Amino acid sequence: MPKAEVADLTSNRLLDALEPASRKRIDPHLRPVSFKLGVTVCEAGGLLRHAYFPQGAVLSLLTVLEDGSAIETANIGREGAFGLFAAMYSRVSFNRCLVQLEGGMVRCPIEVLQTEFRNSEHVRDLFVSYSETLLSQVQQTVACNALHSTEERMCRWLLMMHDRAEGEALPYTHEFLSHMLGTNRKSVTLAALSLQRAGLIRYSRGKIQIVDRRGLERVSCECYAIVKKRFDAFLKPPATAVAGNSRRRGKPLSS
Amino acid sequence: MPKAEVADLTSNRLLDALEPASRKRIDPHLRPVSFKLGVTVCEAGGLLRHAYFPQGAVLSLLTVLEDGSAIETANIGREGAFGLFAAMYSRVSFNRCLVQLEGGMVRCPIEVLQTEFRNSEHVRDLFVSYSETLLSQVQQTVACNALHSTEERMCRWLLMMHDRAEGEALPYTHEFLSHMLGTNRKSVTLAALSLQRAGLIRYSRGKIQIVDRRGLERVSCECYAIVKKRFDAFLKPPATAVAGNSRRRGKPLSS
DNA sequence: TCCGATCTGGTCAAAACTGAACACATTTGT
DNA sequence: ACAAATGTGTTCAGTTTTGACCAGATCGGA
Questions:
Q1: CA B42 → CA A184, B51, B61, B68, B96, distances in Å?
Q2: CA distance linking residue A80 with residue A160, whole number of Å
Q3: Could you tell me if A158 and A201 are in contact, meaning their C-beta atoms sit under 8 angstroms apart?
Q4: Are residues B24 and B103 both part of a single domain?
Q5: Which pLDDT does position A10 carry in this prediction?
Q6: Would you call B34 exposed, middle or buried from its count of C-beta atoms within 10 A (0-12, 13-18, 19+)?
Q7: Could you say which residues of chain A have pLDDT below 50?
Q8: Is residue A157 in some structural domain?
Q9: Which of B71, B241, B249 is opposite residue A92, by nearest beta carbon?
Q10: Of the candidates B136, B160, B146, which has an alpha carbon nearest to the alpha carbon of residue B208?
Q11: Shared domain check, A162 and A96
Q12: B233 assigned to some structural domain
């Protein structure tokens, strides 16, 4: 990962991918925000006034059930943003969103992004492509939660966070992990013990240190790698080689 | 349901919501297609040349894993379409898509929809709003698979299909259900037995008849109602759309 | 009408996960 | 330095789920 991740901690890949004209219009509206670990950025059902672009931070999207339990369905790092659907259309978040890793983050008023989305095909492509990739992350999570063991899922989760934590110890208790993974604490403790005994991680009282990343990747299910690959790739043009389709050329409408 | 579902079987709510000018341009390109139950409309990773708009049919989106197992992450009836992300941007489907209920369906070439998406804000709003709702369905499924019992999930699934099957018996074997739900056949058989003994369903050899719909709703988890509500609402303007969680629901049957 | 394929339900044994409770260790705040 | 709060590992006793396998029922095609 080091290779691809050298970008400094004050950039967001989605913002950086904007065409210069859009970026120039958006830039003046960007404001750095800083949230503490665990803070709720937005409640489920809440109205959104800004979209959030993590630079070093990581956000987590949760689905909240009637009984108050909540489970992670996706997370967002500096490859993406929270609130794009709101910016594209809805203004309302179906999810609770919380800060899972502290770090740099900027926000941008919804209306500014709406205007760009309306006027720039390039921006639309970016937002839509990111949204599709986010959808695929959630879909992978459906499969993962149903078909993979707690241990595999935990590895996957640790790897995702490790990619973004710059070698820091991950600040999570077993209890917290159990909520994210939708399992119970006992299962997490067992998986954690097993990983620690295998020399892959070391932890104590809410700090998890990744010791053997390669090892973790081996124990993890495939879901980690698949999702990572998609997020690494989503900015590239889609299936360009297809014959006969020139989507770049705006054909006149029905004339 | 009867109220909202009386629309005839040759309409698709998403198509019907298009503004007249768009609809007029799109209509000449629509072609009815008819697929048999269980047919794969598109493989995971496949290139899409059309979007599909079910009228009476139901499509299922599956995430396929390396070992060949596949699990349902969402389904699409006549409130929506398959291939909209392709139409908006990507042309490639991350999912396998298969026919889960036979019925009317029309398709439309991607390029036609792309043009509309590019030129009409109204069309963009429709497609984006639907996509967001689809995302929320998948997110609900993440929570459901992780936190609800096989019996609850099966009720939810049967209800979703029953809404669309016009009173027909549902043509599914336990084995098939087990794949959709990501559990094993035995668990499905147990849940099915329990539901049958409670007088909620009756089945034999791949035909499941819903006997007591209300009862099923009581036993189902909340996920059914939440997702249904969102799909019923997504065409309304965002200010009024339903965002959050609804009232309490179901206890498990004791068996 | 019979054969073969399919579907369901049952057994059995094992594994995985759950839930509550509690002791101990470590950290934090005073 | 001490008390309180927090995190982890364990126990025990449950339930749920899994996987393999087979018997009987039923259906459809030859």
A1: 37, 11, 10, 15, 6
A2: 14
A3: yes
A4: yes
A5: 79
A6: exposed
A7: 1-7, 241-255
A8: yes
A9: B241
A10: B160
A11: no
A12: no
Co-location of A96 and A164 in the same domain: no
Q: Which of B199, B141, B172, B162 is nearest to B38 (CA)?
A: B172
Residue B113 lies in a domain: yes
B18 and B95, same structural domain?
yes
Chain B 135..174 CB hits on strand D (< 7 A): 149-151
Interatomic distance B186 CA / C14 C1' (Å): 15
Q: Which residues contact B232 (CB under 8 A, 6 or more apart)?
A: B4, B79
Strand partners, B147: none
CATH at residue A71: 2.60.120.10
Domain that holds residue B114: 3-123
- B117 and B158 part of one domain: no
Q: Does B238 touch chain A (CB under 8 A)?
A: yes
Rg (CA), chain A: 19
**B48 found inside a domain:** yes
Residues A93 and A160 in one domain: no
pLDDT number for residue B9: 66
pLDDT in tens, B122-133: 999 999 999 999
The total number of structural domains that make up chain B: 2
Q: Report DSSP state, residue A204.
A: E
A193 touches strand D (CB under 7 A): yes
Mean pLDDT over the full length of chain B: 89
Do B27 and B82 lie in a common domain?
A: yes
Q: Report the alpha-carbon distance of residue A121 to residue A132 in Å, rounded.
A: 16
Phi, psi of A184 (to 5 degrees): -105, 165
- Category of B63 on φ-ψ map: left (φ > 0), alpha (ψ -120 to 50) or beta: beta
What's the CA gap between B173 and B216, in Å, rounded? 18
Residue A230 to residue A235: CA distance in whole angstroms: 9
The structure tokens listed for B20 are: 């007249």
Q: Are residues A111 and A20 in the same domain?
A: yes
User: A198: domain CATH number?
Assistant: 1.10.10.10
pTM score: 0.90
Count of C-beta atoms within a 10 Å radius of residue B211 = 15
Please give the radius of gyration of chain B, using alpha carbons only, rounded to the nearest integer. 18
